[in-house]
Amino acid sequence: MITPGLPLEQGSVYTFTLSGEDQSYSWAVQTKSPVSLTALRPGDQQLAVPLDSPVELVLSTTLQVDLDLLAEYLHISPQVEGSFEQSGRVLRFTPQEEWEPATVYRLSLKEGLPFEDSSLLLEESYTWSFETQRSSDTWTLSAASSFLPDENPLFRVKGLSCPAGQGKVTVLASLYKFADTLSYAESLSRVAEQYPVWSESFRCLGGTAVDQCQLLFSSALALEGSADGKEQLLELDSLPEGCYMLRLMQGSSVRDAFFMVSPLSVYSLRDHDQALFWSFDESRDGQPLRAAVADLWGGDRNVADADGLSMLTVGEQALISVSDENRELIFPLWTTVEEPVYPNVWRYLSSDKKVYSNGDTIHFYGMLATRDGSKLDYERVSVYILPQGAGLEDAIYRGYAELEEGVFSGSLALPQLLPGAYSLQVWQSGLLYIESSFLVNSDSNYLLPSPGLSEEQTAVPLELGAEYRVPGPEQGTSRLYVQASGGLL
């Protein structure tokens, strides 16, 4: 008998040799491997899963699972009834009824799952999620997370369709105001719990509870429907400081866009677990703000330095609070983060507006800074403006911006451009470091101001290309513009 002096490693091949005077004998043995999952179907964060798809777990062994106990180890939320079967290494769960459409399902398989006639157990736990397919209801409403008090909030509506593919689509627009930043943060938290950032449901957010909100106006819009996902713009007149939500309804389909109006301005950059914030007070000519910065979900806190810079450790989803003595700005960091192309460089680029008219001057500013504090190898960057989707050979503007301690800025008068989407790009050493998009629209998009609307007039048809004045309770008069973007040129 051969007894190892130390325990043998799992899943390893050991060769033994026994030598005698005239001959030797060799043989090999393989120890048992730990049981694991080698594949999941549907995969983690998979979208548009067919409603009749089974869940398949591919094991690293053909050992038979005790199916009577499997339900104690595999959990699905929302709860679904179904049946289990095993074919070789594949465990299969088939729902009793089809999955609900446009629903995120979260699954977990606990460690310790037993196998028949074996002492082996599943050695680790697994969690994953997927989202079932939607109907054709995939249109989106999007906006920046905050605007300045003298800025017109801008919203993008994309993918509205009508049965014939072209024509008018009736949409009900409603503007709500939250009582305070606390109720606003609580509402954002409920959204994040329900819709993970990777899901289509997050991109098509709608149905937020508004029982604690003040309705400022509600009016019908006659927007253009299209079969090619054409983008349209909605623009509100400037609003008082506060927390708001714009809701659009097309039949039973609802989209919500959260935003704040505040004199505090914050530029944020993030990677997988760190976020850099650059805080300013626009009511004091853009002076850096020594604000308290906190992740309301993750709990990390910091105070900005004299230049308004601060850094936090954040998770995949974060709700950021930037505050001074009596003001607070709250915004989410919900963007799915991919592996950075330039992992050692913080990058930021923005322009003073997102929509310009011909003859306007575009002011841009940004930052390229190493994460370890070392000096960059270059002292200026190349700046280009070109139609979105075009190559550098079609650039409308080419110039340079000097770097001063990693910060660059510049301005230029726009030439006569056709309405459409454009890209502001920053290059260095033949590499595109960062870009930001903006739109150019003609003044003819703003036409025919309507008579004042009262709160009781909640179903006034609004035509594309028109401007409307809507009085809100104690908020003065706000205007709603309806326009269509020119698309790519």
The stretches of 5 or more residues where confidence is low (pLDDT under 50) are 336-340, 442-489
Q: Report the major sheet.
A: 6 strands, mixed
What is the percentage of strand-forming residues?
Answer: over 45%
User: What strand order characterises the main sheet?
Assistant: 12-18-17-14-15-35
Query: Tally of extended strands?
Result: 37
Structural class: mainly beta
**What percent of residues adopt helix (DSSP H or I)?**
under 10%
Described by the principal axes of the CA atoms, the overall outline is globular
Describe the structure.
The strands form 9 sheets. The chain has a 6-stranded mixed β-sheet. A 5-stranded antiparallel β-sheet has the order 11-13-16-37-36, with no helix packed on it. It has helices at about 65-75, 180-195, 200-205, and strands spanning about 15-20, 25-30, 35-40, 45-50, 55-60, 75, 80-85, 90-95, 105-110, 125-130, 140-145, 145, 155-160, 165-180, 215-225, 230-235, 240-250, 255-260, 265-270, 275-280, 285-290, 290-295, 300-305, 310-315, 320-325, 330-335, 345-350, 355, 360-370, 380-385, 395-400, 405-415, 420-430, 430-440, 460-465, 465-470, 475-485. Helix content is about 5%, strand content about 50%. It has 3 helices and 37 strands. It is mainly beta and about 500 residues long.
